[in-house]
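Review form for a predicted model. The reviewer records the input and the model, then writes brief findings.
Reviewer: anonymous (R2)
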Amino acid sequence: MKNSSPAVAFLVVTIAGCGKPDIKAGNITLHYLHAKIYPGSAIACELRRVSNREFIGCYGKSMSGRSRIHLWEYQNGKYHAINGTARRAAEVHFGDHADVAIAPLPLTKEIDIGKVLGEFQ
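Model under review:
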């Protein structure tokens, strides 16, 4: 069953995006699966373009609903943790991943977190 993670990630990304899978969302989904952040839940990571920036929202889905969105910005091959939930995941679970970073604070004024999170509702 351990070897099924890539297949599960592929399936979740495909369903969440309702189209062909996106490698950017797929890679971060694999990070969540391997870290077992949401055991017993499906992991969904969706890519959205907002104001010419690429954001990925990740969350756990279960029969009782879904978790808070972990918001990442994808830029130059790296996933930058934007909001508190993503920052916590980056610190606790993804510290040894070369493709994960924490966006410096304060965030650039071009990033409207409320607007971006609204795209994932």
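Findings: The helical segments are 5-17, 23-35, 84-92, 113-118.
Further findings: The CA atoms of residues 83 and 114 lie 10 Å apart.
Recommendation: see findings above.
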